[in-house]
Write a structure and sequence with these properties.
Chain A: This is Electron transfer flavoprotein subunit alpha. Chain A: One of its GO terms (biological process) is fatty acid beta-oxidation using acyl-CoA dehydrogenase. Chain A: One of its GO terms (molecular function) is electron transfer activity. The complex is a heterodimer of chains A (about 325) and B (about 260). The longest helix of chain A has 16 residues. Chain A has two domains: about 180 residues, Rossmann fold (3-Layer(aba) Sandwich), CATH 3.40.50.620; about 110 residues, TPP-binding domain (Rossmann fold), CATH 3.40.50.1220. In chain A, a hairpin with a 3-residue loop joins strand 8 and strand 9. Chain A is an alpha/beta fold. In chain B, strand 3 and strand 4 form a beta hairpin. The radius of gyration of chain B is 22 Å and the shape is globular. The model of chain B has no long low-confidence stretch (mean pLDDT about 95). Classes of the chains: A alpha/beta (about 325), B alpha/beta (about 260). The interface between A and B is large, with 101 and 86 residues. Strand 10 of chain A pairs antiparallel with strand 14 of chain B, so a sheet runs across the interface. The structure holds flavin-adenine dinucleotide. Flavin-adenine dinucleotide (FAD) sits at the interface of chains A and B.
Chain lengths: ~325, ~260
């Protein structure tokens, strides 16, 4: 029991980046346990996916040809059966919205401990140490466990695996109990369209919960006007209905890559950063000098936005 | 129909804080209703107002201190609350997913709800796994990261939207009984009215120990231990502008002019 089984992620015919990142994480772990790295690819065009996933360091790829798109019941049953067959020490799954829709169920079914959203992994063969964040990224922690476990992996923490491998690819004979599939995916919808495409903007003035009230939004709009920039925001602003969905930057919003991103009263939670870390120059205005946004900002002002923003607007008038 | 909502009191941290061992020192901590659970409570109360639910019950694992947070949920319209606590829980530093699931399963068996709503994650330890693990444990159906729920629950089916990454939503039909993990933005959580707050004081808040629920104390020890906590090492080479707002705004303006993005 030294092997690692990593489950890949895809949507609407495309493998997602995490599928290549999880290979790197899985390989590192398998090197420490002295075992093999097995991948599983479940549903969709599995043979095509398997070819793409055959990168350096992968020992075996198990294809589960059942259904087109993600269904958590199919994934849970398939991963459970793969586990029974392969007896790996660790199962890795993506900490994606879909990963979180089956990994906890698998852990419960197999009576394995689960640790989610890992940003680091280390093992001496017996004890697994998982690095993860708490309090929205304010602190990092190490959690330890013994024996087998299932761990979900944060995206963009491990580099994508490169190079062509020579994995053994085999079709895994899964037995899906259709009677147990009590949920059915009926379709997909893109949201957040509309008049403005923030992903096209050169300069974004982005506002977060630090703005406190809807009535304060105009001070951000005035700054954007003065700079001829576009207004975007973190999620709570959209949740509150203060700005439309097409302004939301982040994991469940838009990915933006402007020349300048001014983050005003935004803490820099991982799901927000996922959408803006590719910006050329990042400026943070935040009263909290320890806010996670400071880790990726190029310039920062540790001060009250209600003082700084109007002063800034004024310099352009 | 009966709805059970899991409600957690989460720890909040001040801007400046110190770590003692594997915890943040008490004086820097506050407490609040978990943001995601606030939306879950609101969704349940709206289902009740729509005439679909007869009763909304909350369940919290936590010490007596968190009763003020539980009262917040009651003030927003939940009918009654259950709080689970036990001496055995006092010394547990990580209540892991398996332990929470065992406790909540026992409560569900007593209450027999048709629908369970949980937050997607909690703001402090952000496991994001309890709802789905609980569903599997109970043999219920489930859906994670739900940002829309059709309120007709036609023929015992909940039509939901799951919010995937990158602005894509998945439309899914889920058979009841089910657990839905609720994402922020699904509704607009209400503020508790003064009347609600007064009424909440009189609503039943039932306290249960592990023994009452028939849960073995060994179950709560969990498999995961917290061995380290530290402030993340910053790799950033951020330039911090100092001075009053006029000065810092001036420096930022200069940068923007240099970059050619401002007049
Ligand atoms: C599945 C999932 C998907 C998500 N998707 C997204 C997403 O796409 N986009 C997104 O943004 N979030 C997303 N989130 C939410 C995310 O986890 C955070 O909750 C959110 O990003 C926090 O927004 P914020 O930084 O504006 O608010 P907070 O975290 O509350 O931060 C507010 C900041 O403002 C500062 N501040 C307060 N007052 C002032 C002042 N007067 N002057 C200056 N600074 C001040 C504070 O110091 C703090 O740093 C998602 C979460 C989940 C679970």
């Amino acid at each position: 029991m030294t092997d690692v089984l990593a489950i890949t992620d895809h949507r609407r015919g495309e493998l997602r980046d995490i599928s290549y990142e999880i290979i790197t994480a899985g390989r590192e772990l398998a090197d420490e346990t002295g075992g093999d790295l097995h991948l599983a690819v479940i549903s969709g065009t599995v043979d095509e996916f398997a070819e793409k996933l055959d990168r350096d360091g992968v020992d075996a790829i198990h294809t589960v040809d059942y259904g087109e798109e993600f269904n958590h019941g199919v994934y849970s049953q398939a991963v459970t059966q793969l586990y029974d067959e392969l007896a790996p020490q660790y199962v890795l799954a993506p900490n994606s919205v879909n990963g979180l829709d089956y990994a906890p169920a698998v852990a419960n079914e197999l009576d394995l401990p689960i640790v989610t959203d890992a940003v680091g992994l280390e093992t001496d063969g017996d004890t697994l140490a998982v690095t993860r964040e708490m309090f929205g990224g304010k602190v990092e922690t190490t959690t330890e466990l013994e024996g087998e476990a299932i761990v979900t992996i944060r995206s963009a923490e491990w580099p994508v695996a490169e190079g062509t491998g020579d994995a053994a690819i085999d079709a895994f004979d899964v037995e899906i109990d259709e009677g147990a599939l009590g949920s059915t995916v009926t379709g997909f919808e893109e949201v957040g369209g509309g008049d403005v495409d923030i992903s096209e903007a050169d300069v974004l003035v982005s506002v977060g919960r630090g703005i406190e009230e809807e009535d304060n939004i105009p001070i951000i709009e005035e700054l954007a006007d003065a700079l001829d920039a576009t207004v975007s925001s973190s999620r709570p602003i959209v949740d509150n209905g203060w700005l439309p969905k097409n302004r939301q930057v982040g994991q469940s919003g838009k990915v933006v890559t402007p020349d300048v991103y001014i983050a005003i009263g935004i803490s820099g939670a991982v799901q927000h950063v996922a959408g803006m870390k590719g910006s050329d120059t990042i400026v943070a205005i935040n009263t909290d000098p320890n806010a996670p946004i400071m880790d990726i900002a190029d310039y920062a002002i540790h001060d009250d936005l209600f003082d700084v923003v109007p002063a800034l607007t004024e310099t352009f008038e | 129909m009966k709805i059970l909502v899991t409600v957690k009191e989460v720890a909040t941290v001040e801007d400046e804080f110190e770590i003692e061992g594997t915890a943040i020192a008490d004086q820097y901590l506050g407490a609040d209703l978990n943001e995601w659970d606030d939306y879950a409570v609101e969704e349940a109360v709206q289902l009740q107002e729509a005439g679909l639910a007869d009763e909304v019950v909350t369940v919290t694992i936590g010490p007596e201190d968190c009763e003020q947070t539980i009262r917040q949920a009651l003030a927003k319209g939940a009918d009654r609350a259950i709080r689970v606590w036990d001496d055995a829980l006092e010394d547990v530093d990580v209540l892991d997913v398996g332990a929470k699931t065992d406790i909540l399963e026992a409560v569900v068996e007593d209450e027999d709800p048709d629908l369970i709503l949980t937050g997607v994650q909690s703001g402090d330890d952000s496991w994001g796994a309890t709802g789905v693990a609980l569903a599997e444990d109970l043999g219920f159906e489930w859906a994670a990261v739900v940002n829309h729920l059709e309120h007709d629950l036609d023929d015992g089916v909940a039509s939901v939207r799951r919010e995937l990454e990158g602005g894509v939503e998945e439309l899914t039909d889920v058979e009841l009984p089910a657990v839905l993990t609720i994402q922020t933005g699904i509704n607009e959580p209400r503020y508790a009215s003064l009347r609600g707050i007064r009424q909440a004081q009189r609503k039943p808040l039932d306290v249960q120990g592990l023994g009452d629920l028939g849960v073995d104390a060994a179950a709560v020890e969990g498999a995961v231990t917290l061995t380290e906590m530290y402030e993340p090492e910053s790799e950033s080479d951020v330039t911090v502008w100092e001075g009053g707002a006029e000065d810092t705004a001036g420096q930022l303006a200069e940068l923007l002019r240099e970059k050619g993005v401002a007049p």
